[in-house]
Design a protein that fits this description.
Length: 90
């Protein structure tokens, strides 16, 4: 059945677990082969976090721009209906 509301939380959790498992497998292989130490991997995590957060923010901006182009005026209406009640912009 087509899921009109996107993936379920179970699907997202499964995907996140698969991604984490793949990441862990690569880390274990790099450590076992002596290519990287656990400390080096941890140091790289900070750099990776920064890059991923930047890319994530860029994707969110692109999605908002695309939504606004497809549905002009909808964001203003949503902000009036939901954003003001929640005290934030939608």
């Amino acid at each position: 059945m087509l899921d009109l509301f996107g993936p379920s939380s179970e699907d997202v959790n499964r995907s996140n677990m698969a991604h984490a498992t793949n990441h862990m497998a690569v880390c274990i292989a790099l450590i076992d082969k002596g290519i990287l130490t656990p400390d080096e991997i941890e140091a790289c995590r900070g750099q990776a976090t920064h890059i991923v957060e930047q890319r994530w923010a860029e994707k969110e901006r692109e999605a908002k721009i695309a939504f606004d182009k497809e549905h002009p005026g909808m964001r203003d209406m949503m902000n009036k209906l939901f954003g003001e009640a929640a005290g934030e912009e939608v």
